[in-house]
Every structure is written in structure tokens, then in C-alpha cells.
Design goal:
26% strand; alpha+beta; three-stranded antiparallel beta sheet; single chain; 86 residues
Length: 86
């Protein structure tokens, strides 16, 4: 069963709030016995990219997304983290 845990947050970088939200979401995914977690981000958001890589995520896709991304490269990146083995 596919289930979404979604949040959007705009804060000053370096406060650790997004990292704590990510940790909480990963905890929820584990409790629900998720096998993988997927995250989409703007390609040029380097702060979130670093946070995701540090948490064990890896890139599985990159695509042009002009309807969602109005500036910069206009590309989205999908990250994946494996939680439980299949």
C-alpha cells in the first residue's frame, strides 16, 4: 500500500528543523513497515541535497519539471532511502 507523508517548510538554514522533520518522517515510515522512502526536491536546493545524502538517501531520477519549477534549472530530483528489505 502506498502512503504519503508530506510536509513543506520554509525556515532559515542551519537550524536543524528540516533534519528533525526528516528523522521523524523516517521513524513513521519504519513504524508503518515501509520498504522505501522517496523524496522530491528542486535540483538546485543544495542544502536539502546534503541533508538527504547524510541521511542515507541516493538519487534515483532527475527530470525537467517546468510546471512545478519556475526558476533555475527547472529540474526535480527524486531521492530514495531503503528502509526495510523486501
Amino acid at each position: 500500500m502506498l502512503e504519503w507523508i508530506s510536509f513543506a517548510l520554509l525556515v532559515t538554514t542551519g537550524q536543524g528543523i528540516a533534519t528533525q522533520l526528516l528523522i521523524n518522517c523516517l521513524g513513521q515510515a519504519e513504524k508503518k513497515h515501509a520498504r522505501v522512502v522517496l523524496i522530491e526536491r528542486h535540483e538546485e536546493n543544495l542544502a536539502s541535497a546534503g541533508m538527504m545524502k547524510k541521511a542515507g538517501f541516493y538519487i534515483i531520477d532527475r527530470f525537467y519539471d517546468p510546471d512545478k519549477r519556475e526558476s533555475g534549472s527547472r529540474c526535480s530530483v527524486i531521492f530514495q532511502k531503503d528502509i526495510l528489505p523486501e
